[in-house]
Write a structure and sequence with these properties.
Elements (H helix, E strand, L loop, with lengths): L12 H7 L3 E3 L10 H12 L7 E7 L3 H8 L10 E6 L4 H15 L3 E9 L3 H10 L5 E5 L6 H11 L2 E5 L11 H13 L4 E4 L8 E4 L8 E4 L2 H12 L4 H8 L7 E3 L3 E4 L3 E4 H10 L1 E6 L3 H9 L4
Length: 305
């Protein structure tokens, strides 16, 4: 158990290890697309809630840092208040770095920007940005899972950077295929490149759900965050590629068993808590979600929380 946290009697140690600080809150982004005031207020409530052990960073665009301060500063002197931000670079990189450094000088220790997220399909960009951003920041580069994947991941490995994959969106064509996702996972693991996922992972297991919160939303097949995390854990233990595909596409929660000492899949495959700890430190770090409440509600509904 994690000291100082509160858990339900149903919550197994393996789930705590697997999902500790796993959900980066992206309430500003589609499909939720909340106002800054709403997203900040939600995050503050989640930080003091029963499931704060699952809560990771608050995700904010670099261009909206001043707006973030406007709504979040009132929380900065609350007891135990400490937020970590992941900053999406949506302007010039040099400008984003300068604004983040100024922010940290002003608001540490109450709030810290220590992660940048950037998007690219270029090895040159990875190499250049790795020299521009100071080494005390962690950088995630969102890369496409296409024919250039190996080259891009190799560049990230050589520069000591991290990868990011888009696992969904508000249209079905925003989702990678299962084969693309599995290949991304295997490639990052082979290169020892930690990674995160973003979008389309609101639900624990693969399922067909509305892609937005609109009444006329299209229905699409979504990956489950537990499929992705558990699948990566087994891939890290050298499970065959075809079995990784099956785990990523598994829709039956009963085929996953979370126990005190680890996780079983279909009763025949097991990964221990020690391996799950290594997974979270060295492989899959987190996933971005515009909803924190939806994953919790689903985990409760299937009896894991």
């Amino acid at each position: 158990m994690i000291p100082g946290e509160t858990f339900s009697a149903n919550t197994k140690n393996s789930l705590l290890v697997l999902l500790s600080k796993a959900i980066d809150y992206a309430g500003l982004f589609p499909p939720a697309k909340l106002s800054m005031e709403e997203a900040v207020r939600n995050y503050a409530e989640y930080k003091s809630g029963d499931y704060n052990w699952m809560l990771g960073r608050f995700i904010v665009p670099a261009s909206r840092l001043n707006e973030f301060v406007e709504h979040a500063e009132k929380y900065f002197h609350s007891n135990g208040f400490h937020w970590k931000l992941s900053v999406i670079v949506d302007n010039a990189v040099e400008e984003a770095v300068e604004s983040v450094q100024d922010f940290n000088k002003s608001y540490l220790p109450y709030c810290q920007c220590d992660v940048f997220e950037l998007k690219t399909n270029s090895v040159w960009f990875i190499e250049e940005i790795s020299e521009i951003i100071p080494k005390d920041f962690t950088n995630y580069f969102e890369i496409p899972a296409d024919e250039n994947l190996v080259e891009l991941v190799s560049a990230l490995a050589l520069k000591g950077q991290r990868a990011k994959i888009r696992t969904g969106g508000i249209t079905q064509d925003a989702f990678p295929t299962t084969n693309q996702l599995a290949r991304f996972i295997r490639t990052c693991l082979a290169a020892n490149v930690p990674f995160k996922a973003t979008a389309g992972l609101h639900h624990p297991f693969r399922c067909k759900k509305p892609l937005t919160y609109e009444p006329d939303s299209p229905i699409g097949t979504m990956f489950g965050f537990l499929n992705v995390f558990v699948g990566t854990a087994f891939a890290r233990n050298s499970i065959p590629f075809q079995l990784l595909l099956q785990i990523l596409e598994e829709e039956n929660p009963e085929n996953f068993s979370f126990e005190e000492d680890g996780v079983y899949w279909r009763k025949n495959y097991f990964v221990s808590n020690w391996n799950l700890e290594q997974l979270r430190q060295r492989a899959i770090i987190s996933f971005g979600s515009c909803s924190f409440e939806e994953p919790i509600a689903d985990l409760k509904a299937i009896g894991l929380l």
